[in-house]
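Below is a filled-in request sheet from our internal design queue. Each sheet records the structural input a requester submitted and the sequence that came back. We keep these sheets so that new team members can see what a complete request looks like end to end.

REQUESTER: design group, bay 2
PRIORITY: normal
MODE: inverse folding
CHAIN LENGTH: 276
BACKBONE (tokenized):
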């Protein structure tokens, strides 16, 4: 059985390779990903086209190389933005408590009371399919979960004796949050970030697959999945290639998040070592 450390290292290596290949796509791609060649449409795997061609004669391998750029960039920016919104609200509510916390938690409960997928579909439907509307939909439907976790961590830390001592010595709330509280919850935030990246990538893939996210002819894995549906039986590799890429990236982020959670929680690691 593979240990968590080895699994995390393998996942990090796999993710790093995919990111590197996506960034270097303009230099290593053998064809233009949007180059149409109807005379060579739906070709099988060959020396000229390693992963065949799609219904428009575009090289699938080249589109796979380019396909990760939009998904990875959008999921990264959306996740970080979501984290920033939820982090700020969670820290403020957890530290100040009272009326401030009550007001912020009311907003959090409102957003959590609406099904996330329903809200995302509504936002994208009103604003129209585009990267901007997809980004906004992800941020608005995801920040509340971050906020609740951060709030709980801050509430536990701020009652620690060293925080009380710092407050008695006259330190300002801003100083305590920046110097003591935020560094103390950095590990939890990092774990949340990696795990949320996996979920965000799947959200983007789902909406783009439905035609509500990334729009053709942009080379994107989820768009490639949608385009390949009519040819599943005759050309299954058209769906397998982008599907494997999405699965690999999503699992890599999930495994990295689980590994970080174990490494950054000494008590949990001690219990695991005792059982072993």
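RETURNED SEQUENCE:
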């Amino acid at each position: 059985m593979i240990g968590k450390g080895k699994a995390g290292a393998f996942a990090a290596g796999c993710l790093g390779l995919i990111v590197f290949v996506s960034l270097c796509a303009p230099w290593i791609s053998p064809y233009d990903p949007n180059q149409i060649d109807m005379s060579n449409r739906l070709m099988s795997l060959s020396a000229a086209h390693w992963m065949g061609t799609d219904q428009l004669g575009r090289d699938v391998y080249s589109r796979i190389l380019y396909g990760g750029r939009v998904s990875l960039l959008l999921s990264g920016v959306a996740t970080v933005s979501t984290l920033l919104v939820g982090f700020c609200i969670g820290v403020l509510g957890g530290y100040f408590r009272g009326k401030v916390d009550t007001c912020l938690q009311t907003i959090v409960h409102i957003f959590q009371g609406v099904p996330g997928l329903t809200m995302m579909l509504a936002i994208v439907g009103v604003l129209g399919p585009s990267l901007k509307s997809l980004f906004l939909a992800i941020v608005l439907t995801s920040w509340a979960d971050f906020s609740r976790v951060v709030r709980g961590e801050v509430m536990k830390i701020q009652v620690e004796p060293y925080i009380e001592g710092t407050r008695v010595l006259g330190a300002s709330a801003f100083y305590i949050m920046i110097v003591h509280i935020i560094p103390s919850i950095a590990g939890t935030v990092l774990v949340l970030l990696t795990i949320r990246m996996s979920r965000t990538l799947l959200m983007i893939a789902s909406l783009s697959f439905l035609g509500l996210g990334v729009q053709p002819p942009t080379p994107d894995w989820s768009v490639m999945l949608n385009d390949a549906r009519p040819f599943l039986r005759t050309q299954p590799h058209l769906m397998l290639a982008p599907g494997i890429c999405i699965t690999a990236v999503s699992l890599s982020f999930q495994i990295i998040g689980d590994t970080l959670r174990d490494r950054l929680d000494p008590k949990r690691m001690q219990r695991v070592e005792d059982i072993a």
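SHEET NOTES:
- The chain has twelve helices and no strands.
- The CA atoms of residues 122 and 251 lie 28 Å apart.
FILED BY: M.R.
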